[in-house]
Structure formats: structure tokens, C-alpha cells
Specification:
- By secondary structure, the chain is of the alpha+beta class.
- Helices cover 35% and strands 11% of the residues.
- It has 5 helices and 2 strands, in the order αββαααα.
- A hairpin with a 2-residue loop joins strand 1 and strand 2.
- 14% of the residues are buried.
Length: 148
Amino acid sequence: MQPDFVSDAEDGDERLSKVAQRSEPLTFDFLTGDYAVFRYTSNIDAIPIIRNEELILLYAEANIYQNPSEAVEALNLIRNSAGLDDYGGDSSEASLIDEMLMQRRYSLFAEGHRWLDVRRYDRLDELPTDREGDDVFEQFPIPLTENQ
């Protein structure tokens, strides 16, 4: 898990319950982490295809350009359900996109959305790399067996 997930979170964000600080750091492949991710509580948990929270975030995104006040209302539903106060930023497209991406980052954590979200908004350069030589790919690589 990227350590800035915890440090970038707003105070009181209940979605941080998806991670827990380890009693001792774990190192693998020259990366060391202090947190463990707990997306599911057991090996028989239901894995939804899409959740209502994601639908609300999609609704917010769709309204950013046409009806910003409706986008703010939808974002506030997400923020309030995470224990956060209402959105206090301005209603410009850029600010609402930033807020929507932040809420998607925390609401949909460990569900495979982050790279797709930042790619859609041409923000791949905002993703951190942890080691020299690590890459942030712009597209999914073509498997070698399909490239012959």
C-alpha cells in the first residue's frame, strides 16, 4: 500500500479502517510497508460488481460539467457517510474534479480504480513511484504471447 494513502487522508475519514498499522514493517521486493490492507474480512465475503457508493461517485462526476451544485450534493453524501463534513471548496470544474478523484481514491480503495481514474484525467504523473526505475504505464501492456 502506498504510505501517502494514510497521510493524505482528511482527519476523521472512517475509510481508513480499510488499513491497519502493522506491529512491525513488512519488506518485499525492496519495498517496506507499515500498513496492511483489509478490504475483505474473510475468504467468503461477497465481492460486489459495483456498489451504490460507486454509482453516487459516477453521478457526481457526470454532474460536474452541467450541474455543479448537484455534483456537490452527491459528493457530500459520500463525504458524510465517511464521517467527513460537507465539501467546502469552490464549485469550479477543476476543484470538483479534484474532490471527486479524492473521494474515489478513498471510497474505492483496493478495488482497482485508481490508475483508471488518474489516466482518464491525464494525471498519471501524479502517481508515485517507490523505487528508481519503477514505471507508471500509460496503457496495459500487451502480453508477450499475444504480441508474436
